[in-house]
Amino acid sequence: MFNLRRSQFIQNNSPDETAYFQMLLNRESITNSVVMIQPSLLSYSFNSPPAPALLDVASISADHILLLDAYFSIVIFHGMTIAQWRNMGYQNQPEHQAFSQLLQAPQDDAQMIIRDRFPVPRLVICDQHGSQARFLLVKLNPSSTYNSAHEVVPGGDVIFTDDVSLQVFSEHLQRLAVQ
Q1: Is 93 inside any structural domain?
Q2: Which residues cross the membrane (predicted)?
Q3: Structural domains counted in the chain
Q4: What distance in Å separates the CA atoms of residue 124 and residue 159, rounded to the nearest whole number?
């Protein structure tokens, strides 16, 4: 319910767009419909194979690449350190073959998702603190915001929003259910 209220099905769209998104929601399989409501997030790093990550701002790390599948858009998000290494061209050097493979893995997975989906999702490739990072940040749980920045881990990120986190939302629902 937390993700549904923040999705394109409820807010920030014209009536035509809302009708279009709801028509696709009704037409798709259950798996795809769940991805429309609650996107999936994969984390890529040197230390482990690709693994599911929490849909939370705490999943952002300077040395990770995140792949967000929100059905209508696919976002490849490079952490700050990864983006700096990529911009310096380390992936083109033979001694950094592992880094080249790390950069290529989310690209391959994104292309596989895009190839199998209709309508074709928009592919967004972005870096931490870049202008396109908003496509990822808007889908994440704002557990660390500008007014609770004491919880930020080094290399992490904050979301500049007044929206409530999943924890606050759940606590409010619990209070309403008890009353």
Answers
A1: yes
A2: none
A3: 1
A4: 19
Nearest residue to 1 (alpha-carbon basis) of 29, 42, 34, 26: 34
Task: Report in angstroms the alpha-carbon separations of 44 from 1, 29, 106, 109.
Answer: 28, 27, 7, 11
Amino acid at 44: Y
Continuous segment of H or E residues that includes residue 59? none
Q: Please, which pLDDT band fits residue 147 given cuts at 50, 70 and 90?
A: low
Least reliable range by pLDDT among 15-19, 28-32, 98-102, 168-172? 168-172
Confirm whether 114 is domain-assigned.
yes
Radius of gyration of the chain measured on its C-alpha atoms: 18
pLDDT digits (tens, 9 = 90+) for 113-130: 999 999 999 999 999 999
Reported pTM = 0.88
Residue 110 vs residues 3, 26, 161, 175: alpha-carbon distances, Å: 22, 24, 28, 40
